[in-house]
Amino acid sequence: MKIHEFQAKGIFSRYGVAVPKGETADSVEGAVKVAKAIGGSVWVVKAQIHAGGRGKGGGVKLARSMDEVKEHAQAILGMQLVTHQTGPEGQKVNHVLVEEGMDIKKELYLSMLVDRDTQSVMVLASTEGGMDIEEVAAKTPEKILRESIDPTVGLLPFQAMRLAKGLKIHETDPKLVRAAGTMFAQLYESFVAEDCSLLEINPLVLTGDGRVLALDAKVNFDDSALFRHKATVELRDLDEEDPLEVEASEWDLNYIKLDGSIGCMVNGAGLAMGTMDIIKAEGGEPANFLDVGGGANQERVEEAFRLITSDENVKCIMINIFGGIVRCDVVAEGVVAAFSSVGVDIPVVVRLEGTNSKEAREIINNSGMGDKLIMADGLQDAARKSVAAASG
Fold first, then answer.
1. Active site residues
2. What is the pTM of this model?
């Protein structure tokens, strides 16, 4: 689950992390009102969408007068903001965050994420704040600092100081080293307490008036832990999410819409990724990522069919189920029943392997669905038949 920048900053503030003064607005008049309440002579107007790269797309503007605040808010509100994370269709901006302007002396990068290799929280930091971290990693990997935090003891003081030293904060203002170390500890506390999967600040800034501030904030949460955070769940902005993805979450289906023509229905995230890869290798394009999970019963299969066929671009559906805990014959019965009840009118290629796969094959072959329900012999055969069906 993702939240907006202003919501992430609200969470940071609860843990003592310093953030700029600011408030959101959903109208031009509201943006001007916020700027007047903040005071000063410089403000920043920032689009609030669930995507990075807003500045490059024209979604972050500096204002040096109330007229400019009004002008920028008018331009940003309602715009279809396109960034490298939104795709070509972009996302509509419904809110802006108006914040105080400041004298920035240094921009830094900081993020925290779960590192499965070391079974710890990994802190990534760099002196190259404000840049795409992927670009920094590709061109100057030596500028990325890494600090692995043992979850049994947390972020230790010497680690926080080592990060501050590596970021060369003392070269800008020696007095800010301790403040930065304190902020790192506060951020780690929020990461663990809020069950985050990602926390990113780009940039983290040192200011001329002696402050360390989270100028930007991006936070993702572990969906499996959201039952512990009812207040966080209420921050979800459904307007920012694809309606099909929202509907899928209500059925505990992991669905992400893509741009291809072959709908995918798979059990297991790894198998789903592999299925999309082999479709592309055979010259096709997947229309979605869809993991129906281990409990692929008739109801879930029906809902999966509805989701996939709601996409007008889908010309064929490829079902790839490996029966371990779930029995293939149960899935096959669900597919046949769902095929009829949903009224699927495009070809469906089925690959079922594992527990009771022989029985499943007989159910599919005896379904009476003719050339609409096609049984495949293996994964590659399923991909080839799906690509052929999708291309007509």
1. 109, 200
2. 0.76
